[in-house]
Amino acid sequence: MTVGKLTLDTPVQYVKRVGPTRAEQLADLGIHTVEDLLTYYPRKFNLRAQVQPIATLRDDQETVTFAGEVIATDYRGYGRRPFFECELQDETASVMIKWFHGGYLRDKIKPGLHIAVSGKPSTYKGLLQFINPPFQIIYDPEGTDLDQDELLPVYPAGAKLSSGHIALVVKQVLPEAKELIARWFADDYLNRRGLMNRPDAVAAMHRPEDTEHWSAARRRIAYDECLLMQLGIALVRMREMSRPAHTLESSDEIDRRIRARFPFDLTDARGHELAMEPKKLADEFDLVDETDFRVLCQHRHEQLGEMIESDPAAVLIGLCTSNGGRIDAMALKEQLVPQHVAADKWSGWWTRARTAVRRTEQLTLEGKNPVTVVYHPHGLTIEQELAGEVAKAYTPLDRLDLLRRYVREVKHRKGAVDAAFTAPLLSKLAEQADDFTYRSMDRKA
């Protein structure tokens, strides 16, 4: 079913060649309306060269392109090299095409289908043939111009919807794109910036004349996206600025607590103590913890190099504090190399740092590629760190491995084994051992 006049809000189901089933497949790709369809751009283009009549093909030619209708197919699944073959015919002649291990093509290539093929011709027993050539299905033979080179769009496809099907649907609405899509700017504005108008740019994103035409269309679409992003940021800022400010409470107790957070005394140039209002202090200073890496860099710069070498855990705590409580290995390297750690010494330092993390209750390692260091200000016990893995340990080997790791970590931290942690694991291991023993006895009996 189709409707007489399309709009950007028209459900894609009412586009020509689209019905309820195809509409559901498009919806899986996020395409619900005509506007969604027009802005679903190809990820790349393949060049299909001008086709030659099959009768003019010779085995001494390089890569050639030809097209026709499949008139017969055959699949031989036996032998050392099973193959699928079809006979393709145009108005001048026919030719055989063979794909070794091509059983998967039986559901794709059937008699009556039109395809375009590109490849190097060869002969076998005096007959011209093509072996394992790439091909493209022609869904609209009458509306496809094969007499010139063409850039064919390749769309992100779904499990039940190929790129060719999407291209065919897009082709139905492209002629109306110039009327449907609004022109955001006047022509003189676009000319001064060397930009295409938006309707032409959207159409060129799907069917460009050449690669330069496609690049110009992409530049215009990118310009629009950047503009919308900047407008969105401006609106958010205006909304934030329009919010009423709350009056800050001022008292001697607040003043005392703020001063206590600084690792230094607030004095003027003569060394006299400064008396500042809490609001002014909050406006002029960003209070940070004394373990923050930024504080270490500013006020303990001379000792920082020695600290990095001798106490990696303290450095990691500082970096985590300055980065919201966690930092991954890549960000860590960016902050330390080469300002504080030489590039050729990074690997050794990072190995020692990870060992220090395992021996520090306030630090843990999470994830892989990249590993993330997480800071727990109040510290985590070994039992808390491994609690999540206890639930995942199912087999006896898993539980034995967890117990070994637990004992090893306790020794590293010079702690004591917690019976409340090990008892459930040992109990489960005993149950599994008894169960294994009973089953073995049953089998012997």
Can you tell me about this structure?
This protein is α+β, with helices and mostly antiparallel strands. It folds into five domains: 50-148, Nucleic acid-binding proteins (OB fold (Dihydrolipoamide Acetyltransferase, E2P)), CATH 2.40.50.140; 182-238, no CATH class; 252-284, no CATH class; 293-375; 385-444, no CATH class. The protein has helices spanning 20-27, 34-38, 163-173, 177-180, 187-193, 198-206, 211-241, 252-260, 278-284, 293-299, 301-310, 312-321, 329-336, 346-358, 382-392, 396-412, 419-444, and strands at residues 44-48, 64-76, 83-89, 94-100, 114-119, 122-124, 127-131, 135-137, 150-154, 326-328, 363-366, 372-375. It has a seven-stranded mixed sheet with strand order 6-7-4-3-2-5-8, with no helix packed on it. A three-stranded antiparallel sheet has the order 10-12-11. Helix 10 crosses helix 12 (312-321) and helix 16 runs antiparallel to helix 17. The mean pLDDT is 81.
